[in-house]
Amino acid sequence: MKHPNRLTSSDFVALGAVSLWLVGAALGAVYGLWLALGSTAILVGALVLALQHRSLVTCFRFRIIDLVVGVCGGFVMVLASRALFTPVSNAYPFVKVDAATLYAALEGKSSILYAMLIVPIALGEEIVWRGAVQGAVMRRFSGIASVPIMAVLYALVHMPVGVPSLGLIAFACGLGWGLLRSFTAGLWAPFVAHLLWDEIMFFVAPLSPG
Fold first, then answer.
1. Closest-CA residue to 40 (of 149, 103, 116, 117)
2. What CA–CA distance (Å, rounded) separates 51 from 20?
3. Structural domain boundaries in the chain
4. Cα 104 to the center of its chain, rounded Å
């Protein structure tokens, strides 16, 4: 287990990204969670990319195996989400209410436009969380220990939105995408899995919380 004492510039970038994400999540209660979190993901992701482009280039070296792992991981997460939703929401009814809230926020909006916007949003999230944040955590905690730490942070910064289940979803997805980041040492697999999960769960085959 690594425990470097000095904070590096990468640590400050990660801390700054987390702070900005908290602000974006808090604004979700005012401007709507899709607009607030989507804009935050794109803008903070672009900022992190500008500040850490050299280190992130290595994370985006394309390998076919990463694409395969990402597709498989994405479908496994979709199947798990659909299988768990009914028993979990029956046990905890607020989960069903929160899911309805998430889907209701998309009503009246262009599904095609939002499905296209998911691409830069998911990319921004992966650059920030599996790139900058998990990268910073990995420099202090070797091996798989970085994954639950990053997932907890990922969940906590979504709580200001005011939809409790969003934190639970972020934690579970953070574990999945974080594991892909850890095992492949890159961002392609988690990005592909993230994109597939978002597109299927929100646009292709959404849940029926009602």
1. 117
2. 15
3. 9-204
4. 20
3-state SS assignment for residue 146: helix
φ, ψ (nearest 5 deg) of residue 203: -125, -40
78, 200 Cβ separation under 8 angstroms: yes
DSSP 15: H
**HSE of 180 in the Cβ direction (CA atoms, 13 Å)?**
29
Alpha helices in 126-163 (DSSP H): 134-138, 146-156
Asked whether 55 and 10 are in contact (CB, 8 A), the reply is: yes
Quickly count: other Cβ atoms within 10 Å of residue 93's Cβ: 9
Burial of 16 (0-12, 13-18, 19+ CB in 10 A): middle
Residues 136-191: pLDDT tens digits? 998 888 768 889 999 999 999 999 988 889 999 999 999 999 999 999 999 999 99
